[in-house]
Amino acid sequence: MKSIFAAATIALITLASCTPKATPVTEAPKSVTSTAEQMAQGKTIFETACKRCHDLPEPTKFTSVQWVGIMNSMAPKAKLTDEQHQWVYDYVVSVKK
């Protein structure tokens, strides 16, 4: 009886560990909500605040979804406000290839 219970437990654990895991949901990119003036400020912030720590990436190098992750990780380090974060994001995704 104990061996049947142990076998059933092992089978359940094996099945549970082999099932596909849920993929994390990436926040959808924010739509462009900034004015032209605010995006100009976003460009200035991008060129000054980001440049303090590293070379600037070409805005067209990343997709809008990739920029969400980049901005979410870098904005706190640059001490950007939520508004500034939005302006910089809107600037980088507005740059055309």
Automatic annotation (TrEMBL):
Enumerate the SUPFAM superfamilies for this protein.
Cytochrome c (SSF46626)
Q: Which residues form the signal peptide?
A: 1-22
Task: Report the PROSITE patterns cross-referenced here.
Answer: CYTC (PS51007), PROKAR_LIPOPROTEIN (PS51257)
Q: Which InterPro entries match?
A: Cyt_c-like_dom, Cyt_c-like_dom_sf
Q: What is this protein called?
A: C-type cytochrome
The Cytochrome c domain sits at 37-97
| Assigned keywords, A-Z | Heme, Iron, Metal-binding, Signal
Highest taxon listed in the record's lineage: Bacteria
